Amino acid sequence: MSRSWPDEIFTELKAARIRQVAYVPDAGHSQLLQRCHADREMHTVSLTTEEEGVAMLAGAWLGGDRGVLLLQSSGVGNCINMLAFNQECRIPLLALVTMRGEWGEFNPWQAPMGLATEPSLVAAGVRVYRAETEDEVAETVRAAATFAFQSYRAVAVLIAQRVIGAKRFEK
Amino acid sequence: MNERALDRRSVVGRLLRGRGDALVVTGLGGPTYDVAAAGDTPLNFYLWAAMGGAAMTGLGLARAQPRRRVVVVTGDGEMLMGLGSLATIGADAPQNLAIVVLDNEHYGETGMQLAHTGRGVDLAGIARAAGFAGAATIRTDAELQALARRLFDPGLLFATVKVSSETPPMLLPPRDGPYLRSRFREALLGPDAHK
Question: Is residue B74 within 8 Å of B102, Cβ to Cβ?
Answer without folding.
Answer: yes
